[in-house]
Amino acid sequence: MAELTAFEEQRDRLWAVAYRITGSVADADDAVQETWLRWQALPADEVADPRAYLTTVISRICYDLLGSARVRRERYVGPWLPEPVVAAGGPEDRVTLDESVGLALLTVLERLTPAERTAFILHDVFSVPFPEIAEVVGRSPESVRQLASRARKRVRAEAPRRSVDREEHRRAVDAFLQAVMGGDMDGLLEILDPEVVWRSDGGGKVAAARLPVLGNEKVARFAQRLARGFDPATMLVHHRDVNGAPGLVIVDSASVQAVVFAFSVHQGLITEIDVIVNPDKLRHLDLPNL
User: Fold this and answer.
1) N or C: which end of the chain has fewer CB within 10 A?
2) CATH of the structural domain 166-289, one choice from 3.40.30.10, 3.40.50.720, 3.30.1540.10, 3.10.450.50
3) What's the topology of domain 1-75+100-158?
4) Would you call 114 exposed, middle or buried from its count of C-beta atoms within 10 A (0-12, 13-18, 19+)?
């Protein structure tokens, strides 16, 4: 039982590492299970530091997964977005948002090499020392330091402008929803940044824009067209946290099909909208009981 207790103490952290490296809920779940199997096979007294050991194991598993995942994503139809993590919402007094799990940032991480992404996540997000990361990616500690530095510079250059104020974010999402549902074009233009970006992931399974939509007028029209595709009689709108920030989940109660919206907000305006409609990316969600 001691090994189970030690593992359970680290489970949440291990899943968090795996999800940020892979961008996939299913892969993170599988990586945690594989890590448990390897941990279970060890003699109880062999590992002096379970936290460090388990982090290294799951990171190696995820690093290996990234290689094959990149090949699949290069063939993907349209923009590839991470599988969303949907929750009921955090405490009302929470005032900052977790940028490291935001869909917009995870999308930026897709542009890094597997080694850069792994080094950045482990060092900058989870404070893993460079020598331990070196064991994961098979490089020297100095090489890993350079990988993390390159990744950090790219993330800083390409990460979206976003607020850390939860209430500001929520107000923008509410205004977007009200304008879309009310067919209020002027209201949409007021809440959308002039250079807003809309990315939609249908994966070839569901109709979606195969290229990012740029600019507030085009995004507003696209959002209104999407809204018109839902039947008001069977449409359910849920306010849920999507990857740690206020977002929206729209479910057709008749077909149990869904759309998940994640937003980036800066200075009260929506700067990025990530829309996941690929049903394969939503299989892990308990849609009827959201």
Assistant:
1) N
2) 3.10.450.50
3) Butyryl-CoA Dehydrogenase, subunit A; domain 3 (1.20.140)
4) middle
